[in-house]
Amino acid sequence: MELLVHDLLQIRHIEGIISNEKVPQWVRESLFHSPWVVVRRAPLQDGIIPIGVRGEHRNQRFGAYLPSSEVVMKVTPEQLVSQAGWRTSARLHTIRAFQILDIVSSYYGRYDWSWGLTGSIGFELASSTPTARPDSDLDIVIRMPQPLARETARTLHDWHTQLPIRVDAQLETPFGAVALAEYARHEKQVLLRTSSGPKLVNNPWSP
C-alpha cells in the first residue's frame, strides 16, 4: 500500500499502536470514538507507518507507529476533494470552510495540480467526526513534484488572503513541504519540513 504524508487511515485496533512512550488516556479515548490517524512526516520502517493521533484540543497531538496490517481503510486528501463531502455535510451551515470549498475547488481547477484537504477539515470529512470549528483554518496540501514559479505562488497566496477564512497551504515537494505563504514571500531561504526534521534551503526542489 502506497502511503503519503497527510493520508488518513482508519485503524483496526487501538492496541495496534506502537510507541516508546506511554500512550496517554486521551489518545485511547479519541481512537475509541473515532479510530482514525494521519500519516506523519517520518521515515517508514519495514511496514511500520509513522502516524499522528489528534485529540479534542489543539495541544493534543501524539506521534506513534502502526503496523500496515492494522490499516482498515486509507483516504487521501485528494479523494476528499473529488468526493466533495462538504456539500452534503450536516454542518455545512456551521463550518465556514465548508461554505467556501466549492469556490476554492473551482479556482484550483484552473491549475493542473494534485491537491487535497488536510487538518481538522480533512479529518472531519474522512472520519465524519465533528472535529472542525466554525472558524477553523482551511488546510491544503498541493503535490508539487516540479518547481512552482514564484509569480504563480504569489498569485495563489494573494487569492487566499481574499477569502473569509485563513488558508494554510503547503507545497509538497519530493524532498519535503514548504508553506506556500513563505515560498511566495521570500526569494532566498525557506523552511523545508523533511522526514529528518526542518531545514533552511534555497530551493525546496533540490536534494
From TrEMBL:
A Pfam family hit: MdcG_N
Entry annotated with the keyword RNA-binding: no
Signal peptide region: none
Gene Ontology molecular functions: nucleotidyltransferase activity
Alphabetical UniProt keywords: Nucleotidyltransferase, Transferase
InterPro entries per UniProt: Holo-ACP_synthase, MdcG_C, MdcG_N
Domain Phosphoribosyl-dephospho-CoA transferase MdcG N-terminal: 5-77
Superkingdom of this protein's organism: Bacteria
UniProt keyword Transferase present: yes
Boundaries of every Phosphoribosyl-dephospho-CoA transferase MdcG C-terminal domain copy: 93-204
UniProt xrefs under NCBIfam families: malonate_mdcG (TIGR03135), PRK01293.1 (NF002332)
Official protein name in the record: Phosphoribosyl-dephospho-CoA transferase
High-level lineage: Bacteria, Bacillati, Bacillota, Bacilli, Bacillales
